[in-house]
Design brief:
Layout lengths: L22 E8 L2 H7 L8 H17 L3 E7 L2 E6 L10 H23 L15 E8 L2 H30 L5 H8 L4 H12 L8 H5 L1 E6 L19 H18 L1 E5 L6 H5 L9
Antiparallel strand pairs: 1-3, 1-4, 2-3, 2-5, 5-6
Helix pairs in contact: 2-3, 4-5, 4-6
Length: 282
């Protein structure tokens, strides 16, 4: 940038840097999705096309940003997790946050015609799909696990409520206010009883995608790995150079990996024990 008398305005810029050695989570949320879902007649309680579109956009984000280790999504939100060693944009919060949100929004819009036929449901304002976001830091892997568990528990709670609510409205002939009043103060067991006794619905047989949410990550099992060449990093190589080299190799490795979407339990240890490569420094 050329020097000029106006360059002093740069001094007003503020760059918030995220703490080092912490796990980063960027959570994006749909803005005004109630209006979008109404306009395009999303199926209630869950629209498979809409959920698949969210997943497709998340997969694209992982392919575009190899520093992301894992993502978890439910409804119109997605959480993207960066490892504690991430140095993307020197950990500048605004750069990381805006890159994730804008990349997700761009792919969501681009992929819309693949999931909603343009002839019957073309995108047009208002409203257009937009997302906001926040960045949160977690000092330990336990904290990160608890965050993801919280989101999956929320997925279950919200889906059980919505499944029961819309069964009462669509199959039980209730008005929305009447159904809301009936469910006020009910526990999970009460909702399961309503579903089964009134409508013959076993909640455990509902689609796993709706009950558990979507886990997006790289499946390194699909990569043919070579034994490391120990002669590359000689004793004369500095620790900084080794770290940078390791970081670049890992970035390339992630770029080649297959990104997969699963609907599975991430609260129990089994998921994490079977995939140690997701967060090797935990």
């Amino acid at each position: 940038m050329a020097n000029s008398k106006y360059e002093y305005v740069k001094s007003f810029e503020h760059h918030a840097t995220l703490l080092p050695n912490t796990y980063l989570v960027v959570r994006i949320d749909g803005r005004g999705f109630h209006h979008l879902s109404t306009k395009h007649a999303f199926e209630k309680p869950n629209d498979r096309h809409a959920l698949d579109l969210m997943n497709a956009a998340a997969v694209a984000v992982l392919r575009e940003i190899p520093e992301i280790c894992l993502a978890y999504g439910l409804s119109d939100e997605f959480s993207f997790v960066f490892d504690r060693s991430c140095e993307l944009f020197d950990r500048r919060e605004s750069k990381i946050l805006t890159t994730v949100v804008s990349t997700f929004t761009a792919y969501y819009t681009y992929l819309w015609p693949s999931h909603f036929p343009p002839a019957s449901s073309p995108l047009s304002p208002p409203p257009m799909p937009t997302f906001d976001g926040r960045a949160v830091q977690y000092p330990s892997f336990r904290n990160l696990r608890d965050y993801l568990s919280w989101r999956q528990v929320d997925c279950h709670i919200n889906n059980l409520y919505n499944t029961t609510f819309w069964a009462l409205v669509q199959k039980g002939g209730m008005g929305t206010m009447e159904a809301e009043e009936l469910l006020k103060g009910t526990l999970a067991a009460d909702k399961n009883e309503i579903l089964f006794s009134r409508f013959g619905i076993n909640y455990n047989n509902e689609p796993e995608q709706s009950r558990k949410g979507s886990v997006v990550y790289r499946d390194y099992g699909a990569i043919t790995t070579k034994a490391p060449d120990k002669s590359i990093a000689g004793p004369q190589e500095s620790e900084v150079a080794k770290t940078e080299g390791k970081r670049e190799k890992e970035k390339k490795r992630r770029g080649k990996a297959e990104v997969t979407v699963q609907f599975t339990d991430i609260i129990r240890d089994e998921f994490w024990d079977a995939r140690p490569w997701l967060f090797p420094d935990r």
